[in-house]
């Protein structure tokens, strides 16, 4: 007999019957339940092994799970065998039956080892499924071999193979389900394990009952066999109970081990939490739902002064001040009943009570923990005493700073009044005396007094402007104005200083003409920067460029070729009293407030200002102003021109005698009738006795001040039924509050001392509704349209004959240059044109300077000189020739000026110019040279030295030296 015939039914013997058996449904169901339960338990322990943090616990879970699954598979098989009844007596070999459990244990170990992994590859899945199927098959057929019965046991080869395939496929399916369902949210935990355990239990049972179908029992039934006698229900139940007991034991062992692990981790976590709580900077207090303190950490002990054993068991209200202490329990009960949160879940700053009774500021945050329907609360307390102290100090410092600012404003107002009041008399009486018959020396000295007073006033205005801007006391007006006119006026005001230095002033205007804004503030910003550019530029040009693109801000650039600003000083250039370096103030003069005021005013108008510079090459300031389009209906008035007024009766009230005398003299000269009063009470009497057209009311006076007098005056007008008389406040106060106070008292306008007659006359004309005179009808300032600048002529050439002689020499040189222009190369032509331009500037020949500047620009562009340019220059020379012919009949002058010129030592003059170029003030050397200088030249140099403008003084003396050289020629 072959080996196959020994185990498999290949050729069935003839005449031998095949016995058929039956199954007990109860035991079959029990076997399925055992298989599914063991699988579920094994999967649960595999999941526990996967979550284990220690190797020991992982092994424990795998061993107990493998034992539970292995014995469950064996029990299912044995109960399934007991459920099968043959018409023959069946016995089981004990040793072989016991050994049949080994394959199931090995298969269970392999299965759980795979399930304990976090990921499962396809190859491992197939290998695991085959191992599980082979183990279950081996266990089954080894258990079948333990049967001792009289019939012969053979297997159908096809069903035998099918049983192994079923075991492998279902085992693989169970593994796949267990892993695949981990990523499904609705198949997590016990649901997934139950499904996978059911599939695995069916795989075990499916293999068993498929294998049972493959078994063929060949032989005769036992003669003494009684139906039902072969059932072993009780034995199956005992085996099932033992298997369940083993599973429960395994679960208990794992539960105990896991509980110990959880206890260990819980103790470690509790220890860590205790360490964290004790080390926390904040106080941490835990209370019950009745407000009783349950824990009190070390920081809470430090904050409140209580020891933990003193605080625990007490009501937390002991840490609160009244009235919160009395209301705390009510707050807590209200929250527990209604759930309305006021403090819980949010932080706030409150006061707490220290053990010694003093209050401490704390920040409190409260959280709630609810367990088993009971609430406990944890409070986090931060001691903010230091921050509270800092905030209190900051608040006190802020109040002190505000008080200091108010004191500063008051000081500035008083200083303004005290300085402007005498300056009003100084400047006013100086102007008044200068209008009378004076000797040359008297006029010169009074001119020096007036210039010095105006310089002092300009310095005072800069300081007050900065103070007002810092204090937020500066307001802006909005009206239509011509930006082009503002720019052209700026160039005109700086033209003389630029001509002294031989600088070219350029205006590149590419924007609309009319805008809305504050023209005086715009002019102040641009003038401060433009005058600085002229001051700090020794050669080259200063350019004012205006650009506008659509609705973008108007961009104003001031470019120069001056000394520049070092890079490390750029970020400080807008600070008060700061200049490029320490020597700049001495060399060029000034306070360093111009750029500060420009920045403050620009930002006040909503704009921005920036600067870029290269030392020794030049600087560019850029101003961007958000100006709105304005109307073209703009009446431009010359601020230096008085507005003509008809004869008026004017009441002037001032307690300073000098001010009254000055105003009486100035107004009387202009045809007005002046009524004076020395205080407010006297002013009311004069007002009642005279029919006046206007009142000039000083603010600070005895008896009644200006505000009180004006209020009384308005009451008198109402009582007498008189029409409203305009009242102009006279004050040296310059703050916005001063203006508001004046208007609130019933005054109509505001005039600041020292008084400006053009501004005062314009204000009177406005109040009396008189027509204003446009600037076009007034006498214009020297402009480029004038052939000879009279201001330069008066300042540098007191001798008309000497000036005409020097003009003749310049004319001859210019004609000779023009004749040779076509023969000269570019560098020679440029040098000669530049020299002639400087000479013409010193002579006041403005048109010739402009023509030579155009020629110089054309040569620099490396373009050929056009016939038009030559014709333009020739036309200027012809006009100068005609001017000389027109003035030839004037008598020659040989006064003291010419004598003085001959007495000047050239070497000492050159040495003094060099000293001035270095920023020195050679007062003694100038005193020795002054007697030999023309009077007007000496006065101009003296004024420049008084203003610390050494560069301007050097330019004036250099121009005078050039005239000496011309005369020697």
UniProtKB/TrEMBL annotation:
Specify the PAC domain's residue ranges.
346-396
Going by the record, the broad EC class of this enzyme is transferase
The family database entries (SUPFAM superfamilies) matched by this protein are listed as: ATPase domain of HSP90 chaperone/DNA topoisomerase II/histidine kinase, CheY-like, Histidine-containing phosphotransfer domain, HPT domain, Homodimeric domain of signal transducing histidine kinase, PYP-like sensor domain (PAS domain)
Chief place of localization: membrane
What sequence ranges are listed for the domain PAS?
269-339
> Looking at the record's lineage, which domain of life comes first?
Bacteria
Where is each Histidine kinase domain found? 414-629
Q: Which residues cross the membrane?
A: 26-48, 60-83, 95-116, 125-146, 158-181, 235-257
Q: What membrane topology is annotated for this entry?
A: Multi-pass membrane protein
Which SMART domains does the entry mention?
HATPase_c (SM00387), HisKA (SM00388), PAS (SM00091), REC (SM00448)
Q: State if Repeat is listed as a keyword.
A: no
Q: Which reaction does it catalyse?
A: ATP + protein L-histidine = ADP + protein N-phospho-L-histidine
Check the record and name the InterPro entries matching this protein.
Answer: CheY-like_superfamily, HATPase_C_sf, HATPase_dom, His_kinase_dom, HisK_dim/P_dom, HisK_dim/P_sf, HPT_dom_sf, MHYT_dom
Which parts of the sequence carry 4-aspartylphosphate? 698
Keyword annotations for this protein?
Answer: ATP-binding, Cell inner membrane, Cell membrane, Kinase, Membrane, Nucleotide-binding, Phosphoprotein, Transferase, Transmembrane, Transmembrane helix, Two-component regulatory system
E.C. numbers: 2.7.13.3
Q: Which PANTHER family match?
A: HISTIDINE KINASE CONTAINING CHEY-HOMOLOGOUS RECEIVER DOMAIN AND PAS DOMAIN-RELATED, TWO-COMPONENT HISTIDINE PROTEIN KINASE
**Protein name according to UniProt:** histidine kinase
């Amino acid at each position: 007999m072959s080996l196959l015939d020994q185990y498999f039914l290949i050729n069935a013997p003839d005449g031998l019957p095949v016995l058929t058996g039956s199954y007990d449904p109860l035991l079959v169901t029990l076997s399925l339940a055992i298989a599914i339960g063991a699988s579920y338990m094994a999967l649960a322990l595999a999941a526990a092994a996967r979550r284990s943090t220690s190797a020991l616990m992982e092994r424990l879970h795998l061993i107990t799970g493998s034992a539970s699954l292995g014995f469950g598979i064996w029990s299912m098989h044995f109960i399934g065998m007991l459920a099968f009844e043959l018409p023959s007596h069946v016995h089981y070999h004990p040793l072989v039956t016991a050994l049949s459990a080994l394959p199931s244990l090995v298969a269970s170990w392999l299965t759980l080892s795979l399930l304990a992994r976090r990921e499962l590859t396809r190859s491992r899945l197939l290998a695991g499924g085959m191992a599980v199927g082979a183990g279950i098959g081996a266990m089954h057929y080894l258990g079948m071999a333990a049967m001792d019965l009289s019939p012969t046991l053979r297997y159908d080869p096809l069903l035998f193979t099918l049983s192994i395939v079923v075991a492998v496929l279902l085992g693989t399916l169970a593994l796949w389900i267990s892993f695949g369902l981990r990523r499904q949210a609705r198949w997590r935990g016990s649901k997934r394990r139950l499904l996978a355990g059911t599939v695995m239990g069916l795989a075990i049972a499916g293999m068993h009952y498929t294998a049972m179908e493959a078994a063929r029992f060949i032989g005769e039934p036992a003669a003494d066999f009684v139906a039902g006698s072969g059932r072993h229900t009780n034995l199956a139940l005992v085996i099932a109970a033992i298997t369940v007991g083993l599973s429960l034991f395994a679960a208990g062992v794992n539960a105990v081990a896991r509980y110990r692990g959880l206890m260990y981790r819980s103790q470690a976590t509790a220890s860590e939490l205790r360490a964290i709580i004790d080390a926390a900077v904040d106080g941490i207090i835990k209370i019950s739902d009745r407000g009783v303190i349950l824990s009190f950490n070390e920081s809470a002990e430090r904050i409140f002064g209580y020891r933990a054993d003193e605080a625990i068991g007490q009501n937390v209200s002991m840490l609160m001040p009244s009235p919160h202490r009395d209301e705390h329990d009510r707050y807590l009960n209200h929250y527990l009943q209604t759930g309305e949160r006021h403090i819980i879940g949010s932080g706030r700053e409150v006061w707490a009570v220290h053990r010694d009774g003093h209050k401490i500021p704390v920040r409190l945050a409260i959280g709630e923990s609810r367990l088993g329907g009971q609430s406990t609360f944890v409070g986090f307390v931060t001691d903010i005493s230091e921050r509270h102290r800092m905030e209190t100090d900051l608040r006190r410092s802020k109040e002190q700073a505000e008080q200091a600012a108010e004191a500063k404003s008051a000081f500035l107002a008083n200083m303004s009044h005290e300085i402007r009041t005498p300056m009003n008399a100084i400047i006013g009486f100086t102007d008044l005396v200068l209008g009378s018959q004076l000797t040359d020396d008297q006029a010169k000295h009074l001119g020096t007094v007036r210039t010095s007073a105006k310089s002092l006033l300009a310095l005072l205005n800069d300081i007050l402007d900065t103070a007002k801007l810092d204090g937020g006391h500066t307001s802006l007006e909005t009206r239509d104005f011509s930006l082009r006119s503002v720019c052209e006026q700026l160039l005109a005001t700086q033209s003389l200083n630029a001509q002294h230095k031989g600088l070219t002033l350029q205006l590149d205007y590419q924007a609309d003409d009319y805008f809305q804004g504050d023209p005086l503030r715009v002019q102040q910003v641009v003038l401060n920067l433009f005058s600085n550019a002229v001051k700090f530029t020794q050669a080259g040009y200063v350019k004012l460029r205006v650009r506008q693109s659509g609705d973008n801000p108007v961009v104003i650039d001031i470019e120069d070729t001056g000394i520049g600003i070092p890079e490390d000083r750029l970020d400080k250039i807008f600070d008060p009293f700061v200049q490029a370096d320490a020597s700049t103030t001495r060399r060029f003069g000034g306070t360093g407030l111009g750029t500060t005021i420009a920045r403050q005013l620009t930002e006040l108008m909503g704009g921005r200002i920036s600067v870029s510079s290269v030392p020794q090459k030049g600087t560019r300031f850029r101003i961007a102003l958000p100006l709105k389009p304005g109307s073209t209906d703009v009446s431009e008035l010359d601020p230096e021109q008085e507005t003509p007024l008809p004869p008026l009766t004017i009441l002037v009230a001032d307690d300073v005698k000098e001010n009254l005398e000055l105003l009486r003299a100035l107004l009387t000269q202009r045809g007005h009738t002046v009524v004076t009063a020395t205080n407010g009470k006297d002013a009311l009497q004069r007002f009642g006795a005279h029919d006046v057209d206007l009142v000039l009311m000083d603010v600070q006076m005895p008896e009644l001040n200006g505000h009180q007098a004006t209020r009384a005056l308005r009451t008198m007008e109402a009582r007498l039924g008189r029409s409203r008389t305009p009242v102009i406040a006279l004050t040296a106060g310059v703050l916005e509050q001063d203006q508001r106070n004046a208007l609130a008292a019933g005054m109509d306008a505001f005039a600041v001392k020292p008084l400006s007659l053009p501004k005062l006359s314009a204000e009177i004309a406005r109040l009396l509704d008189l027509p204003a005179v446009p600037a076009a009808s007034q006498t214009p300032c020297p402009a480029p349209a004038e052939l000879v600048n009279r201001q330069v002529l008066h300042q540098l050439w007191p001798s008309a004959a000497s000036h005409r002689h020097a003009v003749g020499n310049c004319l001859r040189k210019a004609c000779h240059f023009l004749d040779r222009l076509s023969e000269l190369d570019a560098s020679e032509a440029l040098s000669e044109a530049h020299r002639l331009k400087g000479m013409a500037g010193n002579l006041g020949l403005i048109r010739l300077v402009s023509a030579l500047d155009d020629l110089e620009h054309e040569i620099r562009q490396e373009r050929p000189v056009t016939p038009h340019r030559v014709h333009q220059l020739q036309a200027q020379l012809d006009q100068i020739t005609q001017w000389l012919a027109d003035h030839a009949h004037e008598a020659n002058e040989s006064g003291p000026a010419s004598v003085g010129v001959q007495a000047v030592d050239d070497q000492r003059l050159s040495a003094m110019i060099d000293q001035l170029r270095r920023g020195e003030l050679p007062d003694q050397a100038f005193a020795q040279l002054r007697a030999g200088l023309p009077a007007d030249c000496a006065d101009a140099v003296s004024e420049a030295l008084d203003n610390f403008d050494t560069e301007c003084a050097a330019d004036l003396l250099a121009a005078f030296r050039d005239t000496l050289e011309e005369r020697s020629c």
